[in-house]
Design goal:
Blueprint: E1 5-9, H1 13-25, E2 29-33, H2 36-45, E3 50-53, H3 62-71, E4 81-85, H4 90-98, E5 103-106, H5 111-116
Parallel strand pairs: 1-2, 1-3, 3-4, 4-5
């Protein structure tokens, strides 16, 4: 059985490190990109099993990034996207899901809930 490959696009280095370590202990291989440009490049280089996407990035809007991911050809455009963001308002969640996210987890979050999702 192959190890699930996850890509986390998150600018908060401390949060990313915590999530990467937690998910690694749970059997996932997680790569991290600190901004949208590096995240899209990583996605196109090696197709992950899941993208964990922050909405507020220094160089990109996470909603626009989700839209760009969904517009990619082939399997890359169908990769599951979980939005992990401080924007927890119900309308933000609805917009994220309507733009193609598969799930939406507001910060702060319980790491076990992330793992369960």
């Amino acid at each position: 059985m192959t190890t699930p490959q996850l890509l986390m696009i998150e600018d908060d280095q401390r949060l990313a490190q915590m999530v990467v370590e937690y998910l690694a202990q749970s059997g996932f291989a997680v790569s991290h990109a600190g901004d949208g440009a590096r995240g899209m490049a990583a996605l196109e280089q090696q197709l992950p099993d899941l993208v964990i996407l922050d909405l507020m990035l220094p160089d990109a809007d996470g909603l626009e990034l989700c839209r760009r991911i969904r517009a990619l050809p082939g399997a890359a455009g169908k990769v599951p996207v979980l939005m992990l963001t401080a924007k927890g308002d119900p309308m933000d969640r609805i917009i994220g899901l309507e733009l193609g996210a598969d799930d939406y987890l507001p910060k702060p979050f319980e790491p076990r809930e992330l793992l369960a999702r």
